[in-house]
Amino acid sequence: MIATLVRSIFDQPDRMSTWAKLAEVTSRLTQAGFCDQATYLLDAADDILAFSVFPFEHWKKIRSNNPQERLNKEVRHDRRRRDLPQPSGGHPSRRRAAR
Q: For residue 70, is it within any domain?
């Protein structure tokens, strides 16, 4: 329930709607007895919704700073790079070791 409510904050089309949804979510959390979580969201509101000052087109790229997400993207990118055919002479590190 909490995760669904919090995710709905980020699905808003503009800055004002995002802040209005935050107020609605914290109100619903408080009514449901999740006062600590509502307080946490309100205390961190400026940081959580900092992305909303940028144009909407950029939101998806900047609203997530999940380090695990970025690491997974890097691993996928690196894996693709390793799967590319190597120039003649074998793997670059083997060529360096042979010198």
A: yes
Q: Which residue from 7, 25, 21, 20 is spatially nearest to 63, judged by alpha carbons?
A: 7
Residue 82 domain-assigned (yes or no): yes
Query: Rounded to 5, what percent of the chain is helix, strand, coil?
Result: 75, 0, 25
- For 4, the token pair is 């669904």
* Phi then psi dihedrals of residue 16, to 5 deg: -65, -40
Q: Residue 38: give the domain boundaries.
A: 2-86
CA distances from 58 to 12, 22, 64, 91 (A): 13, 20, 11, 39
Evaluate whether residue 48 is within a structural domain.
yes
State the total domains in the chain: 1
Q: Do the beta carbons of residue 37 and residue 4 sit within 8 Å?
A: no
In the chain, % of residues over pLDDT 90: 27
Q: Which of 39, 23, 31 is nearest to 1 (CA)?
A: 31
Whether the predicted pLDDT of 82 surpasses 70: no
